[in-house]
Every structure is written in structure tokens, then in C-alpha cells.
Write a structure and sequence with these properties.
The chain is mostly helical. The protein is built from 13 helices and no strands.
Length: about 300
């Protein structure tokens, strides 16, 4: 994977780790469904500003428009709601940890998906490392928590499962401009979740400046800009590699949760980070290429030696 694509993935991972901190801030004043509504709503607005500003053509049939609506629910409205619902009972760092299961699920889903990427031995080992790191990160918190925390983790786990399917379904829209696709999908997500959010939680009322700031940042930066970058790099790195930001996100989420929200950081969290990084490198294939290169170098050196 080229360095510039790797950098995009790292930035996305750091940014999406920040989203769990902003969720915690938003939940102080908004309900979880309203958090999801605000994020997809402002995310859609940001994408449409970009589409109109760059004069991109929007030509989608009614059938594909309805398909994009469902895609938006699976990719945005659903996962954002699941995270916010879970974060009512678990810390932002724990939510970031759960998010890190996405690459593991993506490897599994891609392996059985028609035309999907087959799981190699190294990627399978990466999946094991990823889950091992998540266990190390999660175990201390789960041991201290009660039943509500356990069910919150399971509920939050629905979000990465949605992502694992959505990155494969996204290939059906490869002929569309990715920015237009994101704009339409976020619009569909907004239309789908708005009535449910209003029915369950009422019309949201925001009185705090910090809530507005968090909502603007999570909507325009971590949704509009981030998903535009996400779908730009997706065809270049594949549906499994594109989920690697979710291995970086828990590190960002834990650091920000500790620094800003004053959540507890344990030694097990640090050990888990190292294991997760190992899984990321295995899924990326960087370790295998480095080892292969080192094995070839001595042979090349021997061939270049002068003959007596």
C-alpha cells in the first residue's frame, strides 16, 4: 500500500477515534438517536456543499436512490446510533475498542462475499491479533462493570458488523462519483432516522455552545470530509485494508478519553494497543513484504560478487 494511502488511513483512524469523545459530549444534552441524526444531517449538508461547489453531476435512478437510502442506514444512521446508545453505559475508550473489531469482521465477510477478498494466513493472524488486543483492552473494564455495561458492549458491537457489510456493498456503487454517493447515502440516513429520533426523543433542543461545537465538528469534519476521503481511498486499498482506521481509532479514543474526559487508562490498555498494531501490520501485509525483501537481498548480493 502506497505511503500516501497509509497516511490517509492513519488520519482517518485518529479522527474517528475523536468521534467517541464528541459522542460523550453530545450525550450530555442529546439522546443517542438525536446524536446520530445530527451527525448524518450535518454530514449530508457538508457533502452537498462540496458537490455543488465542485459542480459534480448528480444522475441517479429512482431504484438506485432507494438502494442508497438503505446503504445510508447500514453505513451511517445505524452505526452512529449503536455507538451513541452504547456510550450511555460505557466509556468512549471502550466504544473505540469495540469499533476495532471492524477489520476482523470485514475479513470474515469479505471471505464469503461473492467476488470478495479471500482471507490469507497473515490476514487471519491479523484478525486473531486484533481480537486479542480488544480482549486485553476490554477485559479490565468488563470485569469491573455490571450487566448494563455488558449489554452495552454487545449493542455497540452491532456497529462494526454493519461496517463490515457496508464496505462490501459499497462496491455496487463504484460507477457513481463517491462524493455524490456519500451525499445521497447520508441524505437517506437522515430521512430514515429523523422520524424515529423525533418519535423516541422529541425535537432536540440544544442550549450549550459545546454541544453545537461538537455537533459541527463531528458532522462536517468527521463525517463529510472523512467519508469523502474514505471512499476516495477505498478502491485503491480494498475493502479489508480500508477498515484499518478502526484499529487506530481505539488508541485515539483512549488517549482523548483519558486526557479530555478524564477516563481511566490502565496498563492493559497499553498492552492491547501493541497487539492491535501487530494485527494492523499483519492485515496490511507489511511484515510479510519486509521479510520477503530481506530474504532476497542476500541472494542479490551473492549474484553481484566477482567470480574468481
Amino acid at each position: 500500500m502506497a505511503l500516501r494511502y497509509w497516511l490517509v488511513i492513519v488520519v482517518l483512524g485518529i479522527g474517528w477515534g475523536m468521534s467517541f469523545m464528541f459522542n460523550a459530549i453530545l450525550l450530555r444534552e442529546l439522546g443517542p438517536l438525536s446524536v446520530s441524526l445530527g451527525r448524518v444531517g450535518f454530514g449530508a449538508l457538508g457533502c452537498w456543499i462540496y458537490v455543488l461547489g465542485t459542480r459534480r453531476a448528480v444522475q441517479v435512478s429512482w431504484h438506485r436512490g432507494m438502494a442508497l437510502l438503505g446503504f445510508g442506514v447500514l453505513s451511517y444512521a445505524g452505526p452512529f446510533a449503536f455507538y451513541a446508545l452504547g456510550q450511555q453505559h460505557i466509556a468512549s475508550g471502550v466504544a473505540g475498542i469495540v469499533n476495532a473489531t471492524t477489520p476482523a469482521f470485514a475479513v470474515i465477510v469479505s471471505h464469503v462475499w461473492p467476488g470478495g477478498e479471500r482471507a490469507t494466513v497473515l490476514k487471519s493472524l491479523g484478525v486473531i491479533c486484533g481480537f486479542g488486543g480488544i480482549v486485553l483492552l476490554s477485559l479490565p473494564v468488563l470485569q469491573q462493570g455490571g450487566g448494563s455495561e455488558f449489554w452495552a458492549v454487545l449493542l455497540t458491537l452491532c456497529a462494526p458488523i454493519c461496517y463490515a457489510f457496508s464496505v462490501n456493498i459499497a462496491r455496487a456503487f463504484r460507477d457513481l462519483d463517491p462524493v455524490v454517493m456519500v451525499a445521497l447515502a447520508l441524505t437517506g440516513a437522515t430521512v430514515a432516522i429523523a422520524p424515529l429520533a423525533v418519535w423516541m426523543e422529541g425535537v432536540p433542543v440544544i442550549a450549550r455552545a459545546e454541544t453545537w461545537g461538537a455537533l459541527m465538528f463531528i458532522g462536517f469534519v468527521l463525517t463529510s470530509a472523512a467519508f469523502i476521503a474514505f471512499y476516495w481511498v477505498l478502491p485503491k486499498v480494498g475493502p479489508t485494508n480500508i477498515t484499518m482506521p478502526t484499529l487506530i481509532a481505539p488508541i485515539s479514543a483512549l488517549i482523548l478519553g483519558t486526557w479530555v474526559l478524564k477516563e481511566e487508562l490502565l496498563a492493559e490498555h497499553l498492552y492491547g494497543m501493541l497487539v492491535i498494531f501487530a494485527g494492523l501490520l499483519l492485515i496490511d501485509g507489511r511484515i510479510a513484504r519486509l521479510g520477503s525483501r530481506k530474504r532476497r537481498e542476500p541472494r542479490a548480493g551473492m549474484q553481484n560478487q566477482p567470480k574468481g
